[in-house]
Predict the structure.
Amino acid sequence: MADDAVRALQERVRTAAASKTLLVIRGAGTRDFYGQSIQGDVLDTTPLAGIVDYDPTELVVTARAGTRVAEIDDALAARGQMLGCEAPRFGVGATLGGLVATGLSGPRRPYAGAVRDLVLGVRIVDGKGDDLSFGGRVMKNVAGFDVARLMTGALGTLGVLTEVSMKCLPLPKVEATHVLECSADDAIRRTNEWGGKPLPISATCHHAGRLAVRISGSAPAVEAATARIGGTTIADASAFWASVRDHTHDHFAAAVGRAAVVWRLSVKPTAPYRDLGGEQLIEWGGALRWLVAGARTDAGEVRAWARGNGGHATLFRATDKAMGAFHPLPDAVHQLHRRLKATFDPSGILNRGRLYPDF
């Protein structure tokens, strides 16, 4: 059944390539807001569903691209394991293909690895309709590993993901979340100080004068760390971190409800807090800042500040992305992207324009 779905997908891509018909790759559509707006006929990946192989002793799961992230999380949790990236969903039905194509990770990312770090192998249909595989299903098999990682975050511009193998991690034995009252500057200082110590921190989130810190590990390690960090225990911590992960937290929910502009600022963790004219939520020990733009927010200032602090700014949510969703690339890197696009999708039909307007 799955092979039939892949063959049907190959035929659809070949026909589109021959007629120069643009295709929009879509699973559940929960990440349609991300990247540039695109035009074309929908190529549905949801028929490619199901876990292909999962051996807990190898710490590797292989699933088809249309498999729901929730299904994978549940299967792993039943065997005491997880995806270390704490895969965000952004909506009901979010798929593995969408997770890998966007390359977005959740609160645990700095401490357990990004999506790209966990991808061991992929199977794709390229822009010519060829069925290709890169990497493998075991951690020691690194043949073609770089190409597999290349597909992570490519937003489907290089190929249609049909199957992905990912590294798993053991679930923590114990977790606790404590909350402290502090300013953004103090939160950045504290999390950076803690980052230099042997504390089993697995997530941080500062918003509206409150810093939440999650500790994960063995019971003695968690007990010692929480005593050192202080603060008070948060009620229903699992729901809180899920709201940060999936952007249902009040900071994001209010912005989405009123179609506000949301910026994603990836910077060095020690970057000082800067008032950019809107409310911020700070994750990853200071390395990730979510800015809901206000009336005083200037896009040029936002991108200049991110660049000056060793990072970049992504226009994550907006009704108008004429300024470009992603940080402009240096010319040499831009040309490299164009050559990759020409190699994997010579007709330029797959998610054209979703990363940058010309590829």
